[in-house]
Amino acid sequence: MEPHPGDDKPHAPTPSIWPVGFAVGIACILAGLVISRPAVIVGAVIAVVFGALWARDAMRGAREEPAPDVVEAQPAVAADEGDEPERYPRNVFLELTTLGLGGVITAIVALPIVGFAILPAFTEEDPSGVDLGPIDNFPEGEFVEATFLLDPSKGEVSRRTAFVRYNGMTEGQPSYTIISNRCVHLGCPVQAAGPRNEEEQEQIDANGVEVRLTPVLPANYTCPCHGGAYDIEGNRTAGPPVRALDRFKFSIIDGNLFLNETYSVGKVEGEGATAQIHAYGIQGPGEHVDGLSGWMYPIQPEDLES
Ligand code: FES
Predict the structure, then answer these.
(1) If exposure means fewest CB atoms within 10 Å of the residue's CB, which of 6, 120, 122, 161 is most exposed?
(2) pLDDT band for position 230 (50/70/90)?
(3) Ligand 1 closest atom vs CA 223
(4) What is the predicted pLDDT for the residue at 4?
């Protein structure tokens, strides 16, 4: 039996799924960077395993490639017999298809994630936040309940409350404790348990936003929905909430106090300006932020503003 032309040549490595697995692992890492730490770990494991298998196959193929032999010239029988010469080996086609498919999957998964991660830096946002008026409205060591419309275009549905206390100056910087009233169980509005001085309530117009400021003297904070309770620094003390109350970042611009984005808190040690705040990125109600539960909790939806 006559050998088929080309049978004496080494075959290229067989197409494999390793590149696809590697691409999926990289995609998981990228997705995990945005949504979940466990996804980063899973992606890294997948990428390392499939990458190692891919590299092993590639090295094996390189080792098995023999030195070029001196091949005797043979008559071009194929043309004489009317056979069509193989112009594009099937194994090369399959390998390129596999790599291309892996690249497409990676692009489909990664591009939106990279876009969402990068685009906000190029979009215009109001960096100042919610204007609560002059800092003189907040006497040192006293809580003031501030209610305001987070988005005036949405009306009362966007009304939010923050409990604000000026803690004095610390290392030349003003210190404020600003606690969100969104219960971290299911999101009901918590209330300050203590006297409210309605007579000294002020309504101010801060750059077109109506803000109501009411002096309060809370002993703690309570939630009317399921009995959740928090201490004066927002630490959970009773009921179903799973962490401390969220807080607002702040800035001072031209003598006015501005509320910036919220962040979540595992717990607060100490009080006022010297408190140690275990801070995390903003999370949804009911979500743990520390310990094993913080790692295991499922992915949260995007809209988590308080
Ligand atoms: S929503 Fe506050 S305790 Fe349930």
Answers:
(1) 122
(2) very high
(3) 2
(4) 52
Please report the pLDDT score of residue 68 as a whole number. 53
What tens digit of pLDDT does each residue of 133-186 get?
A: 889 999 999 999 999 887 778 888 888 999 999 999 988 899 999 999 999 999
Atom 4, ligand 1: residue with shortest CA distance: 226
Mutate to test the pocket of ligand 1, among 183, 236, 245 (most ligand atoms within 8 A of CB): 183
CA of 264 to the centre of ligand 1 (A): 16
Q: DSSP assignment of the chain, as one string?
A: -PPPTTTTSPPPPPP-SHHHHHHHHHHHHHHHHHH-HHHHHHHHHHHHHHHHHHHHHHHHHHHH-PPPP-------HHHHHTPPP--S-HHHHHHHHHHHHHHHHHHHHHHHHHHHHHGGGGS---SS-EEEEEGGGS-BT-EEEEEEESSGGGGGGGEEEEEEEEEEEETTEEEEEEEE-B-TTT-PBPEEES-B-GGG-EEEEETTEEEEEEEE--SEEE-TTT--EE-TTS-EEESS--SEEEEEEEEEETTEEEEEEEEEEEEEES-GGG-EEEEES---TT---SHHHHHHSPPPPS----
